[in-house]
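Suppose a colleague, Dr. K., hands you the sequence of a protein chain of 109 amino acids and asks what its three-dimensional shape might be. Before reaching for any lab equipment, you can write down a predicted structure in token form. Begin with the sequence itself:
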Amino acid sequence: MAKIIDGKQISLDIKNELKEKVAKYKEQGIEITLAVVKVGNDPASAVYVRNKEKACEYVGINSKTLALPEETTEEPTEAPTEEPTEEPTEALADNPEEPVNNDSQAVVE
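The predicted structure, expressed as tokens, is then:
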């Protein structure tokens, strides 16, 4: 027999669990930031990024988005990650499903 699950409730439970973990990091003086480099004007990507920003706000994580034009090449997308920042970077994520005019792996590296 199939079991019906409530995806929205499961999502909320996960977000609430993350919210608690983020609060513990903040108590230790650790701030977490999700940095996104969005290339182009794909509406689906805009929705994806906006949803990530909302999720970050809900759990208490900072978010930063650098939006670049569609004709952006690899060189400019590499530049922001090379600049020194006050915040250490633990991980970078790329949206490999999104078609881009450059090498996604090179941008992440």
